Amino acid sequence: MPEIIIYAVAGRTTEQKRGLVKDMTEAMVKNFGVPAEAVTIQIVESDKDSKAKGGVLFSER
Amino acid sequence: MPEIIIYAVAGRTTEQKRGLVKDMTEAMVKNFGVPAEAVTIQIVESDKDSKAKGGVLFSER
Amino acid sequence: MPEIIIYAVAGRTTEQKRGLVKDMTEAMVKNFGVPAEAVTIQIVESDKDSKAKGGVLFSER
Amino acid sequence: MPEIIIYAVAGRTTEQKRGLVKDMTEAMVKNFGVPAEAVTIQIVESDKDSKAKGGVLFSER
Amino acid sequence: MPEIIIYAVAGRTTEQKRGLVKDMTEAMVKNFGVPAEAVTIQIVESDKDSKAKGGVLFSER
Amino acid sequence: MPEIIIYAVAGRTTEQKRGLVKDMTEAMVKNFGVPAEAVTIQIVESDKDSKAKGGVLFSER
What we know:
Distance between the termini of chain A: 36 Å
Strand order of the largest sheet of chain A: 1-2
Number of domains of chain A: 1
Oligomer: homohexamer
CATH class of chain A: Alpha Beta
Shape of chain A: elongated
CATH topology of chain A: Macrophage Migration Inhibitory Factor
Largest sheet of chain A: 2 strands, parallel
Mean pLDDT of chain A: 97
Protein backbone atom coordinates (compact mmCIF):
# COMPACT_ATOMS: atom_id res chain seq x y z
CA MET A 1 0.00 0.00 0.00
CA PRO A 2 2.26 0.28 -1.82
CA GLU A 3 4.04 -3.03 -1.68
CA ILE A 4 7.49 -3.31 -3.19
CA ILE A 5 9.00 -6.59 -4.35
CA ILE A 6 12.68 -6.65 -5.27
CA TYR A 7 13.94 -9.62 -7.29
CA ALA A 8 17.68 -10.06 -6.80
CA VAL A 9 20.48 -12.58 -6.82
CA ALA A 10 21.20 -13.78 -3.28
CA GLY A 11 24.28 -12.59 -1.43
CA ARG A 12 23.72 -9.08 -0.11
CA THR A 13 24.56 -8.39 3.53
CA THR A 14 22.08 -7.35 6.17
CA GLU A 15 23.75 -3.96 6.21
CA GLN A 16 23.11 -3.52 2.48
CA LYS A 17 19.49 -4.56 2.88
CA ARG A 18 19.02 -2.27 5.89
CA GLY A 19 20.20 0.71 3.89
CA LEU A 20 18.14 -0.21 0.86
CA VAL A 21 14.79 -0.57 2.61
CA LYS A 22 15.37 2.66 4.52
CA ASP A 23 16.16 4.67 1.39
CA MET A 24 13.41 3.07 -0.69
CA THR A 25 10.81 3.75 1.95
CA GLU A 26 11.91 7.39 2.12
CA ALA A 27 11.63 7.59 -1.68
CA MET A 28 8.07 6.28 -1.46
CA VAL A 29 7.07 8.67 1.32
CA LYS A 30 8.60 11.65 -0.49
CA ASN A 31 7.17 10.97 -3.93
CA PHE A 32 3.87 9.17 -3.33
CA GLY A 33 2.93 10.91 -0.09
CA VAL A 34 2.20 7.76 1.90
CA PRO A 35 3.10 7.20 5.56
CA ALA A 36 6.27 5.13 6.05
CA GLU A 37 4.39 2.49 8.03
CA ALA A 38 2.24 1.77 4.96
CA VAL A 39 5.25 0.72 2.90
CA THR A 40 6.25 -2.94 2.88
CA ILE A 41 9.26 -4.26 1.01
CA GLN A 42 10.26 -7.86 0.37
CA ILE A 43 13.54 -8.86 -1.24
CA VAL A 44 13.07 -12.13 -3.13
CA GLU A 45 16.49 -13.69 -3.54
CA SER A 46 17.39 -16.51 -5.89
CA ASP A 47 20.66 -18.37 -6.39
CA LYS A 48 22.83 -17.46 -9.35
CA ASP A 49 21.67 -20.53 -11.23
CA SER A 50 18.06 -19.38 -10.98
CA LYS A 51 18.52 -15.99 -12.58
CA ALA A 52 19.50 -15.05 -16.11
CA LYS A 53 20.17 -12.11 -18.35
CA GLY A 54 20.55 -12.39 -22.12
CA GLY A 55 19.58 -16.06 -21.92
CA VAL A 56 22.55 -17.00 -19.74
CA LEU A 57 22.41 -17.92 -16.03
CA PHE A 58 24.27 -15.57 -13.69
CA SER A 59 26.24 -18.60 -12.49
CA GLU A 60 27.70 -18.83 -16.00
CA ARG A 61 28.08 -15.22 -17.06
CA MET B 1 -6.10 -19.02 -13.33
CA PRO B 2 -6.19 -17.34 -10.98
CA GLU B 3 -2.71 -17.63 -9.55
CA ILE B 4 -2.09 -16.41 -6.03
CA ILE B 5 1.30 -15.37 -4.73
CA ILE B 6 1.72 -14.77 -1.01
CA TYR B 7 4.79 -12.85 0.16
CA ALA B 8 5.58 -13.66 3.78
CA VAL B 9 8.34 -13.86 6.33
CA ALA B 10 9.61 -17.44 6.63
CA GLY B 11 8.70 -19.55 9.62
CA ARG B 12 5.15 -20.85 9.28
CA THR B 13 4.53 -24.55 9.87
CA THR B 14 3.28 -26.98 7.27
CA GLU B 15 0.04 -27.18 9.24
CA GLN B 16 -0.44 -23.42 8.97
CA LYS B 17 0.24 -23.50 5.25
CA ARG B 18 -2.07 -26.47 4.72
CA GLY B 19 -4.93 -24.60 6.34
CA LEU B 20 -4.20 -21.38 4.49
CA VAL B 21 -4.16 -22.83 0.98
CA LYS B 22 -7.32 -24.80 1.67
CA ASP B 23 -9.24 -21.78 2.93
CA MET B 24 -7.89 -19.45 0.23
CA THR B 25 -8.82 -21.87 -2.51
CA GLU B 26 -12.34 -22.14 -1.10
CA ALA B 27 -12.56 -18.34 -1.04
CA MET B 28 -11.59 -18.24 -4.70
CA VAL B 29 -14.07 -20.95 -5.71
CA LYS B 30 -16.89 -19.29 -3.76
CA ASN B 31 -16.35 -15.72 -4.94
CA PHE B 32 -14.86 -16.03 -8.43
CA GLY B 33 -16.69 -19.20 -9.49
CA VAL B 34 -13.62 -21.08 -10.67
CA PRO B 35 -13.00 -24.81 -10.15
CA ALA B 36 -10.64 -25.56 -7.25
CA GLU B 37 -8.20 -27.35 -9.53
CA ALA B 38 -7.68 -24.10 -11.47
CA VAL B 39 -6.34 -22.31 -8.40
CA THR B 40 -2.59 -22.36 -7.74
CA ILE B 41 -1.00 -20.74 -4.73
CA GLN B 42 2.68 -20.18 -4.01
CA ILE B 43 3.98 -18.84 -0.71
CA VAL B 44 7.19 -16.89 -1.31
CA GLU B 45 9.07 -16.77 1.97
CA SER B 46 11.97 -14.49 2.81
CA ASP B 47 14.11 -14.29 5.92
CA LYS B 48 13.42 -11.53 8.42
CA ASP B 49 16.38 -9.54 7.15
CA SER B 50 14.89 -9.48 3.64
CA LYS B 51 11.57 -7.94 4.54
CA ALA B 52 10.73 -4.52 5.91
CA LYS B 53 7.87 -2.34 7.06
CA GLY B 54 8.19 1.36 7.72
CA GLY B 55 11.73 1.27 6.40
CA VAL B 56 12.95 -1.16 9.07
CA LEU B 57 13.86 -4.83 8.54
CA PHE B 58 11.68 -7.35 10.39
CA SER B 59 14.87 -8.69 11.97
CA GLU B 60 15.24 -5.32 13.70
CA ARG B 61 11.69 -4.31 14.48
CA MET C 1 3.00 -8.65 5.82
CA PRO C 2 1.79 -10.80 4.30
CA GLU C 3 1.04 -9.31 0.91
CA ILE C 4 -1.18 -11.23 -1.48
CA ILE C 5 -1.12 -10.73 -5.22
CA ILE C 6 -3.84 -12.36 -7.31
CA TYR C 7 -3.26 -12.66 -11.06
CA ALA C 8 -6.58 -12.98 -12.89
CA VAL C 9 -8.33 -12.31 -16.15
CA ALA C 10 -10.23 -9.02 -15.98
CA GLY C 11 -13.99 -8.99 -15.66
CA ARG C 12 -15.01 -9.72 -12.08
CA THR C 13 -17.54 -7.42 -10.43
CA THR C 14 -16.85 -5.27 -7.42
CA GLU C 15 -19.16 -7.54 -5.45
CA GLN C 16 -17.05 -10.58 -6.32
CA LYS C 17 -13.86 -8.76 -5.37
CA ARG C 18 -15.39 -7.50 -2.11
CA GLY C 19 -16.25 -11.04 -1.08
CA LEU C 20 -12.89 -12.42 -2.13
CA VAL C 21 -10.72 -9.98 -0.20
CA LYS C 22 -12.89 -10.39 2.89
CA ASP C 23 -12.68 -14.18 2.86
CA MET C 24 -8.98 -14.26 1.96
CA THR C 25 -8.12 -11.86 4.75
CA GLU C 26 -10.05 -14.01 7.22
CA ALA C 27 -8.15 -17.07 5.96
CA MET C 28 -4.87 -15.28 6.60
CA VAL C 29 -5.88 -14.13 10.09
CA LYS C 30 -7.13 -17.60 11.04
CA ASN C 31 -4.19 -19.60 9.73
CA PHE C 32 -1.17 -17.30 10.03
CA GLY C 33 -2.25 -15.44 13.16
CA VAL C 34 -1.73 -11.94 11.78
CA PRO C 35 -4.00 -8.95 12.42
CA ALA C 36 -6.41 -8.23 9.56
CA GLU C 37 -5.01 -4.72 9.11
CA ALA C 38 -1.60 -6.22 8.25
CA VAL C 39 -3.01 -8.04 5.22
CA THR C 40 -2.93 -6.29 1.86
CA ILE C 41 -4.32 -7.82 -1.30
CA GLN C 42 -4.00 -6.60 -4.87
CA ILE C 43 -5.82 -8.16 -7.80
CA VAL C 44 -3.74 -7.76 -10.95
CA GLU C 45 -6.09 -8.10 -13.91
CA SER C 46 -5.09 -8.63 -17.51
CA ASP C 47 -7.21 -8.83 -20.64
CA LYS C 48 -7.98 -12.25 -22.12
CA ASP C 49 -5.37 -11.76 -24.80
CA SER C 50 -2.67 -11.26 -22.16
CA LYS C 51 -3.19 -14.52 -20.33
CA ALA C 52 -2.68 -18.10 -21.47
CA LYS C 53 -3.00 -21.69 -20.35
CA GLY C 54 -1.56 -24.61 -22.27
CA GLY C 55 0.10 -22.18 -24.66
CA VAL C 56 -3.19 -20.68 -25.86
CA LEU C 57 -4.49 -17.20 -25.02
CA PHE C 58 -7.74 -17.11 -23.03
CA SER C 59 -9.19 -14.98 -25.83
CA GLU C 60 -8.81 -18.00 -28.11
CA ARG C 61 -9.57 -20.93 -25.86
CA MET D 1 2.80 -24.98 -11.73
CA PRO D 2 4.80 -23.33 -13.04
CA GLU D 3 3.26 -19.92 -13.35
CA ILE D 4 4.97 -17.32 -15.50
CA ILE D 5 4.48 -13.58 -15.08
CA ILE D 6 5.86 -11.27 -17.74
CA TYR D 7 6.22 -7.59 -16.89
CA ALA D 8 6.24 -5.47 -20.03
CA VAL D 9 5.42 -2.07 -21.43
CA ALA D 10 1.96 -2.09 -23.03
CA GLY D 11 1.58 -2.09 -26.77
CA ARG D 12 2.20 -5.55 -28.16
CA THR D 13 -0.32 -7.00 -30.60
CA THR D 14 -2.41 -10.08 -29.98
CA GLU D 15 -0.37 -11.82 -32.65
CA GLN D 16 2.85 -11.10 -30.78
CA LYS D 17 1.34 -12.35 -27.53
CA ARG D 18 -0.06 -15.46 -29.19
CA GLY D 19 3.38 -16.39 -30.48
CA LEU D 20 5.08 -15.64 -27.19
CA VAL D 21 2.85 -17.75 -24.97
CA LYS D 22 3.04 -20.65 -27.42
CA ASP D 23 6.84 -20.61 -27.57
CA MET D 24 7.25 -20.05 -23.83
CA THR D 25 4.95 -22.92 -22.99
CA GLU D 26 6.91 -25.19 -25.32
CA ALA D 27 10.13 -24.08 -23.62
CA MET D 28 8.65 -25.02 -20.25
CA VAL D 29 7.40 -28.41 -21.45
CA LYS D 30 10.74 -29.22 -23.09
CA ASN D 31 13.00 -28.16 -20.24
CA PHE D 32 10.99 -28.74 -17.07
CA GLY D 33 9.04 -31.78 -18.23
CA VAL D 34 5.61 -30.47 -17.28
CA PRO D 35 2.42 -30.94 -19.31
CA ALA D 36 1.47 -27.88 -21.38
CA GLU D 37 -1.90 -27.59 -19.64
CA ALA D 38 -0.07 -27.01 -16.33
CA VAL D 39 1.61 -23.86 -17.62
CA THR D 40 -0.12 -20.52 -17.07
CA ILE D 41 1.27 -17.23 -18.33
CA GLN D 42 0.10 -13.72 -17.58
CA ILE D 43 1.50 -10.63 -19.28
CA VAL D 44 1.29 -7.66 -16.91
CA GLU D 45 1.42 -4.53 -19.01
CA SER D 46 2.05 -1.03 -17.77
CA ASP D 47 2.05 2.28 -19.59
CA LYS D 48 5.38 3.83 -20.54
CA ASP D 49 5.15 6.27 -17.67
CA SER D 50 4.91 3.40 -15.18
CA LYS D 51 8.10 1.64 -16.17
CA ALA D 52 11.71 2.76 -15.90
CA LYS D 53 15.23 1.70 -16.64
CA GLY D 54 18.28 3.50 -15.31
CA GLY D 55 16.03 5.71 -13.23
CA VAL D 56 14.23 7.19 -16.24
CA LEU D 57 10.65 6.46 -17.29
CA PHE D 58 10.24 4.74 -20.67
CA SER D 59 8.00 7.65 -21.67
CA GLU D 60 11.05 9.90 -21.38
CA ARG D 61 13.88 7.73 -22.61
CA MET E 1 19.01 -7.28 -11.96
CA PRO E 2 17.59 -6.24 -9.68
CA GLU E 3 14.04 -5.84 -10.87
CA ILE E 4 11.63 -3.84 -8.74
CA ILE E 5 7.87 -4.25 -8.91
CA ILE E 6 5.70 -1.73 -7.11
CA TYR E 7 2.07 -2.64 -6.49
CA ALA E 8 -0.03 0.48 -6.01
CA VAL E 9 -3.49 1.93 -6.37
CA ALA E 10 -3.80 3.81 -9.66
CA GLY E 11 -3.83 7.58 -9.72
CA ARG E 12 -0.32 8.92 -9.30
CA THR E 13 0.89 11.59 -11.72
CA THR E 14 3.76 11.17 -14.14
CA GLU E 15 5.69 13.67 -12.05
CA GLN E 16 5.27 11.51 -8.95
CA LYS E 17 6.38 8.41 -10.84
CA ARG E 18 9.35 10.22 -12.38
CA GLY E 19 10.60 11.20 -8.95
CA LEU E 20 10.00 7.77 -7.47
CA VAL E 21 11.89 5.77 -10.07
CA LYS E 22 14.80 8.21 -9.94
CA ASP E 23 15.11 8.03 -6.15
CA MET E 24 14.58 4.27 -6.01
CA THR E 25 17.22 3.65 -8.63
CA GLU E 26 19.66 5.82 -6.70
CA ALA E 27 18.87 3.82 -3.55
CA MET E 28 19.65 0.61 -5.40
CA VAL E 29 22.91 1.93 -6.86
CA LYS E 30 24.04 3.28 -3.48
CA ASN E 31 23.19 0.25 -1.36
CA PHE E 32 23.56 -2.75 -3.69
CA GLY E 33 26.41 -1.39 -5.81
CA VAL E 34 24.78 -2.06 -9.18
CA PRO E 35 24.96 0.24 -12.20
CA ALA E 36 21.84 2.38 -12.68
CA GLU E 37 21.21 0.92 -16.14
CA ALA E 38 20.81 -2.54 -14.57
CA VAL E 39 17.83 -1.41 -12.50
CA THR E 40 14.34 -1.82 -13.95
CA ILE E 41 11.21 -0.71 -12.16
CA GLN E 42 7.60 -1.38 -13.07
CA ILE E 43 4.66 0.17 -11.25
CA VAL E 44 1.68 -2.19 -11.38
CA GLU E 45 -1.43 -0.13 -10.77
CA SER E 46 -4.87 -1.44 -9.93
CA ASP E 47 -8.16 0.36 -9.46
CA LYS E 48 -9.37 1.02 -5.93
CA ASP E 49 -11.85 -1.84 -6.19
CA SER E 50 -9.01 -4.28 -6.91
CA LYS E 51 -6.95 -3.57 -3.83
CA ALA E 52 -7.72 -4.16 -0.17
CA LYS E 53 -6.35 -3.72 3.31
CA GLY E 54 -7.86 -5.30 6.38
CA GLY E 55 -10.27 -7.20 4.17
CA VAL E 56 -11.90 -4.05 2.78
CA LEU E 57 -11.50 -2.69 -0.75
CA PHE E 58 -9.83 0.72 -1.02
CA SER E 59 -12.92 1.89 -2.89
CA GLU E 60 -14.89 1.32 0.32
CA ARG E 61 -12.46 2.32 3.05
CA MET F 1 12.26 -5.00 -20.03
CA PRO F 2 10.64 -7.38 -20.20
CA GLU F 3 11.21 -9.11 -16.91
CA ILE F 4 10.05 -12.68 -16.51
CA ILE F 5 9.33 -14.27 -13.14
CA ILE F 6 8.76 -18.02 -13.00
CA TYR F 7 7.13 -19.45 -9.88
CA ALA F 8 8.00 -23.13 -9.50
CA VAL F 9 8.47 -25.90 -6.99
CA ALA F 10 12.16 -26.28 -6.11
CA GLY F 11 14.16 -29.19 -7.45
CA ARG F 12 15.13 -28.52 -11.06
CA THR F 13 18.75 -29.04 -12.07
CA THR F 14 21.04 -26.31 -13.32
CA GLU F 15 20.94 -28.00 -16.73
CA GLN F 16 17.15 -27.71 -16.83
CA LYS F 17 17.31 -24.05 -15.83
CA ARG F 18 20.05 -23.33 -18.36
CA GLY F 19 17.91 -24.70 -21.16
CA LEU F 20 14.79 -22.93 -19.97
CA VAL F 21 16.24 -19.44 -19.76
CA LYS F 22 17.91 -19.84 -23.15
CA ASP F 23 14.70 -20.94 -24.87
CA MET F 24 12.53 -18.38 -23.10
CA THR F 25 14.86 -15.55 -24.00
CA GLU F 26 14.80 -16.64 -27.62
CA ALA F 27 11.00 -16.73 -27.50
CA MET F 28 10.99 -13.15 -26.22
CA VAL F 29 13.45 -11.92 -28.84
CA LYS F 30 11.54 -13.63 -31.65
CA ASN F 31 8.04 -12.52 -30.68
CA PHE F 32 8.50 -9.16 -28.93
CA GLY F 33 11.46 -7.93 -30.95
CA VAL F 34 13.64 -7.01 -27.98
CA PRO F 35 17.40 -7.57 -27.74
CA ALA F 36 18.36 -10.66 -25.73
CA GLU F 37 20.38 -8.58 -23.27
CA ALA F 38 17.21 -6.73 -22.29
CA VAL F 39 15.54 -9.91 -21.06
CA THR F 40 15.94 -10.88 -17.41
CA ILE F 41 14.47 -14.05 -15.93
CA GLN F 42 14.25 -15.09 -12.30
CA ILE F 43 13.03 -18.49 -11.17
CA VAL F 44 11.40 -18.17 -7.75
CA GLU F 45 11.44 -21.60 -6.16
CA SER F 46 9.45 -22.70 -3.14
CA ASP F 47 9.43 -26.00 -1.27
CA LYS F 48 6.61 -28.44 -1.92
CA ASP F 49 4.91 -27.44 1.31
CA SER F 50 4.73 -23.83 0.15
CA LYS F 51 2.88 -24.45 -3.09
CA ALA F 52 -0.62 -25.76 -3.71
CA LYS F 53 -3.05 -26.66 -6.43
CA GLY F 54 -6.71 -27.39 -5.83
CA GLY F 55 -6.28 -26.37 -2.21
CA VAL F 56 -3.76 -29.13 -1.46
CA LEU F 57 -0.02 -28.65 -0.86
CA PHE F 58 2.27 -30.30 -3.43
CA SER F 59 3.92 -32.12 -0.53
CA GLU F 60 0.59 -33.90 0.03
CA ARG F 61 -0.76 -34.39 -3.46
